[in-house]
Amino acid sequence: MSTVLVIAVAVLVFLVIFQIAKASEYVAILKGEDRSRKENNKINGFFMITFLIAGLIGVYYCNELLVDKTLFAQPSASVQGERVDDMMKLTLVITGIVFVLTQIALFVFAYKYQENDNRKVFFFPHNNTMEIIWTVIPAIALTVLVVIGLRNWFFFTSDAPKESAVVEVTGKQFGWIFRYAGEDGVFGKKYYRMIDPANNSLGLNWRDSADINIKDDPAAHDDIVQDQTMYVVKEKPVKLIINSRDVIHDVGLSAFRLKMDAVPGTPTTLWFTPKYTTKEMREITGNPNYQYEISCDQMCGNGHYSMKGIIEVVTQAEYDEWQAKQKPAYYAAFPDKDPSNQQQAVPVAVDSAKKVTALSSAKSISTASN
Amino acid sequence: MSNEAILHSSVVAHDHHDSHDDTHHEHHHHETFITKYVFSQDHKMIAKQFLITGMFWAVLGGFMSVLFRLQLGYPDSTFPWLEDIIGKWGKGGHISAEAYYALVTTHGTVLVFFVLTAGLSGTFANLLIPLQVGARDMASPFMNMLSYWFFFLAGLVMLSSIFVETGPFSGGWTAYPPLSALGSASPGSKTGMDLWIIAMALFVVSSLLGGLNYIATILNMRTKGMSMTRLPLTIWALFFTAVLGVLSFPVLLSGFILLIFDRNFGTSFYLSDIFVSSVGALPNEGGSAILFQHLFWFLGHPEVYIILLPAMGMVSEILSTNARKPIFGYMAMVGSMFAIAILAFLVWAHHMFVTGLNPFLGSIFVLLTLLIAVPSAIKVFNWITTLWRGNIRFTPAMLFAIGFVSLFISGGLTGIWLGNSAIDIHLHDTYFVIAHFHIVMGVASMFGMFAGIYHWFPKMYGRYLNNNLGYIHFWLTMIGAYLIFWPMHYQGFAGMPRRYYDFSVWESFKQFADLNRFISTVATIVFFVQIMFLFNFFYSIFKGRKVTSTNPWSSNTLEWTTPINPGHGNWVGEIPEVHRWAYDYGKDGKDFIPQTTPVGDDESVH
Ligand code: HEM
Ligand SMILES: [Cu+2]
Ligand SMILES: [Cu+2]
Question: In what residue span(s) does the Cytochrome oxidase subunit I profile domain sit (chain B) (predicted)?
Answer without folding.
Answer: 33-579
